[in-house]
Amino acid sequence: MTMTMSAPTFATTGLAPALLAELSAQGIAEPFPIQAATLPDSLAGRDVLGRGRTGSGKTLAFGLPLLSRTAGRRARPGRPLALVLVPTRELAQQVTTALAPYARAVGLRCATVVGGLSLQRQADALRAGAEVLVATPGRLHDLINRGDARLDQVAITVLDEADQMADMGFLPQVTKLLEQVAPNGQRMLFSATLDGGVDKLVRRFLTDPVSHSVDPGTATVTAMTHHVLHVDAADKPDALAHIAAREGRTILFIATKHRADRVARQLLAKGVRAAALHGGKSQPQRTRILEQFRTGQVTALVATDVAARGIHVDGLDMVVNVDPPTEAKDYLHRGGRTARAGESGTVVTLVLPEQRRDVSRLMSVAGITPRSARVRPGDEELSRATGAREPSGVPVTIAPPPPASLSSAARPGRSRRPRRR
Predict the structure, then answer these.
(1) Rounded to an integer, what distance in angstroms lies between the CA atom of residue 112 and that of residue 132?
(2) Is residue 396 part of a domain?
(3) Whole-angstrom distance, CA of residue 189 vs CA of residue 175
C-alpha cells in the first residue's frame, strides 16, 4: 500500500493518544491512502474535500479527526458539537457503529438521528447531551423544527456521500442545515463525484479546502471483473436462479420493489435463501434482513437501488444487475458494494436483446470494457463467470422479520419521491 510521506503512521499525525491506543486495540496498524492523505489537514482544522469511492476508508478519515478535535468538550442538552450528515439510515448506522469504540475511548457521546425509528427516543438522546450527531437530513430537520436540536454549537461538520444526497433530492435540506452550524467551523465533504449540485455546496460552504482525490469513481473498475451476459427473455429466470444459487453472498439489483418481492419469492421456491430489501420495508425489517444477509442466513439479497445504497457487507464478492441501471453512476454505485477496501469482486449484468445498445453505451460512459458472452442456464460459460449452479429445487422459508410498524418507511404511498430519512 503506498503511503504519502506526510503521514506514514497514525502515530505521527498528532491524533489523541486514546485514539491511537484504540486503533491498535482494533488491529488497525497503518492508515489507508485516503486517511494518510487527509489526516494532517483535517487534524489542523482545515476544510477538506475528499473524493474517494465507498469502501476506501473514509469513515475513519473524517471520524478520527472529528473525535480528536472534539475530545475534552461537553455538549449542552440538544446542542451537539460535531455533525455527520449521511444520505441513508443504513449508512448512518454504519458510521455510528464504526465510530463508537473511538468515541468511547475519548469519552464522547454519540446520537443517531434517522427516519423510521422513534422520534421521541431520538429527541431524548439529544436532550441527554451528545457531542457527536450522525444524522439523515429529513429527520434532523424534524427535530430542529420541534425545538429538540440546535446546530449553533456545531464546530465540525461532515457531509458523507454528498453525491448520493444530491441524487436523492436532499441538497435543499442539506443547505438549510449547513446555514445553521457555527459559521467559522470546520467542514469536510466526501463524494465520489462533484456533479448534481455538490460543487455548489463546496463553493458555498468550504473555505479554501484541501482536495484529496483517492481512488476516484472510475478506479472502482480496478479491483473488479465486469461481465455482460446476454440472455433471452425465456432463459432469464432460470439463469438468474442458477447465479443466485452460487456459493457465497450475492446482491441482485432489481428496478422496482414489487419485482424485487416477486423475484425473492421465485428464488425461495427454487431453494435459494433469498430476501427482498426495498423502501417498502420498515426500518426494523431492513435491519433484520441485512443482519440475516451478513450472517449468511440469507445468501441472495434482492435489492432496489435506494435500499442498497450505503450497504457495507464484508467479503461480498458479487453484484448482479438483473435489471441494468440506466446511468453509469448508478452502475458504479451498485458495483461499489463489492471489491471494497482492496478486496476483489465481480459485477455481472444480465442483458436482454433489446437492452444491448443501452448497456453498451452505459459501459462506455462508465469507462468499463466488460467481458461479454451469450449464456443459457446450465452453460459452462455461465458457471465460469458467476459460479452458477443448479438450485436444489426444494423450497426454503426464512423466518420473516418482525411485522412492519407504521413508521414513515412502512406507510403506503411514500415511495415515489425520495423518502425523508
Answers:
(1) 9
(2) no
(3) 13
pLDDT digit string (tens) for 83-101?
A: 999 988 878 888 898 899 9
Query: Could you list the residue range(s) of the whole structural domain that residue 333 is in?
Result: 220-386
Work out the percent of the chain whose per-residue pLDDT is above 70: 87
Q: Looking at the domain assignment, is residue 411 inside a domain?
A: no
Q: Are 242 and 211 in the same domain?
A: no
Mean pLDDT of 383-398: 92
169 and 302 share one domain: no
Helix (H) or strand (E) holding 253: strand 250-253
- Residue 129 buriedness (CB in 10 A; 0-12 / 13-18 / 19+): middle
Q: Give the number of other Cβ atoms within 10 Å of residue 36's Cβ.
A: 26
Does 406 fall in a domain?
no
Q: What is the pLDDT, as a whole number, of residue 411? A: 35
Of 156, 185, 215, the residue that ends a domain is 215
What is the three-class DSSP state of 72?
coil
Strand order across the beta sheet in which 345-351 lies: 274-277, 300-303, 250-253, 318-321, 345-351, 224-230, 371-374
Q: What is the CATH number of the domain that holds 161?
A: 3.40.50.300
Classified as helix, coil or strand, 322 is coil
CB of 18 closer than 8 Å to CB of 45: no
pLDDT mean over 130-144 = 95
Per DSSP, the residues of 181-216 read S-TT-EEEEE-S--TTTHHHHHHHH-SSPEEEE-S-
Same domain for 91 and 174, yes or no, is yes
Number of domains into which the chain is organized: 2
- Is the predicted pLDDT of residue 418 greater than 60, yes or no? no
